[in-house]
Amino acid sequence: MLLGAVAFAAVGCNGTNGDTINVFSREDGSGTRSAFTELTGVLVENEDGTETDMTFSGASFQNSTNAIMTAVAQDKNAIGYVSFGSLNATVKAVAVNGVAPSVDTIKDKSYELQRPFNIAYKQSNIDSKPLAADFLGFLGSAEAQEVIDAEKYIVTDDNAPAYAKGSDLTGSITIGGSSSVSPLMEKLIEKYCALSGIAKNSIELQTIDSTAGMNGAIGGTFDIGMASREVKDSELEQGITAEVLAYDGIAVIVHNDNAVEDLSMEQIRQIFTGAVREWSALA
Fold first, then answer.
1. Which pLDDT belongs to residue 283?
2. Using one digit for the tens of pLDDT, what is the confidence trace for 48-59?
3. Distance CA 181, CA 20 (A)
4. Which of 7, 54, 73, 243 lies at 20 to 30 Å from 120 by C-alpha?
5. Which CATH class, in words, describes the domain spanning 116-249?
6. What is the 3-state secondary structure (H, E, C) of the chain?
7. pLDDT below 50 — which residues of the chain?
8. How much is the pLDDT for 2?
9. What are the tens digits of pLDDT across the range 88-129?
């Protein structure tokens, strides 16, 4: 069965020909899953306007980016998806519709699987905490853009102003949410503390998922929430302000010994809905 016009290396050369594809996906609440299912068509709009996530029920669901990469790295028949900025050499990213993920292809939008990294907060909460306001100012600075670029994400402002430290930076702040945004945020916190002189333990970073990040910003548990997806209208309606921190690709990953190099978007959809279960179907 041929599922598209994209050519493939022979899958049989890696010993997986005819073997069941082991699908790894993220848990409910994950911003990466939300963005991935929407972009690939795994999320289906119903006639009544509601949406249904058609992710294969037999998938193995993991609760973090690192868990997905570890699982795929240990399973020759595995496929999963992770933040491009978190990608490492333990797994292989395949091209999508003939385009490999890279900073350049994400930036010029030729690589189709991409999404924003968002932060969200309640302005009244920020106004009462000079440290939080100063950190937000830093996130829009030239120095923050340098960190974003160095970590293989796409900056939002090529002409951002230099960071200017504020005053009365006492107390502490809490940031929480997406496990995809968290590694970048950790680097940004390190840079901020180095520039401002603020002790790193003044900023608590909690890694959970995007939904928890937005709910934390809404409820005040987090001064700043993180989401690796678009912020929903229903979340904005509860009084939070959202800003794009950076842009990121979603890399579709397989085991390093897997011969597959390229998948069409339709093939990805069929794999992750369970319509295609064998690697041999991709030959």
1. 67
2. 888 999 999 999
3. 32
4. 54
5. alpha beta
6. CCCCCCCCCCHHHHCCCCCECEEEEECCCCHHHHHHHHHHCCEEECCCCCEEECCCCCCEEECCHHHHHHHHHCCCCEEEEEEHHHCCCCCEECEECCECCCHHHHHCCCCCCEEEEEEEECHHHHHCCHHHHHHHHHHCCHHHHHHHHHCCCECCCCCCCCCCCCCCCCCCEEEEECCCCHHHHHHHHHHHHHHHCCCHHHEEEEECCHHHHHHHHHHCCCCEEEECCCCCHHHHCCCCEEEEEEEEEEEEEECCCCCCCEECHHHHHHHHHCCCCEHHHHC
7. 1-17
8. 34
9. 999 999 999 999 999 999 999 999 999 999 999 999 999 999
CATH code for the part of the protein at 11-114+250-282: 3.40.190.10
Q: Are 283 and 12 in contact (CB under 8 A)?
A: yes
**What is the model's pLDDT at position 18?**
52
Which position has the token pair 């998806």?
81
Which residues, other chains included, contact 131 with Cβ-Cβ below 8 Å and sequence gap of 6+? Answer: 169, 170, 171, 172, 173, 198, 202
Q: Where along the chain do its domains lie? A: 11-114+250-282, 116-249
The two structure tokens encoding residue 196: 């401002």
Is residue 3 a contact partner of residue 40, using CB atoms and an 8 Å limit? no
Confidence at residue 49, expressed as pLDDT on a 0 to 100 scale:
80
Instruction: Tell me if domain 11-114+250-282 and domain 116-249 are identical in fold.
Output: yes
Q: Are 242 and 231 in contact (CB under 8 A)?
A: yes
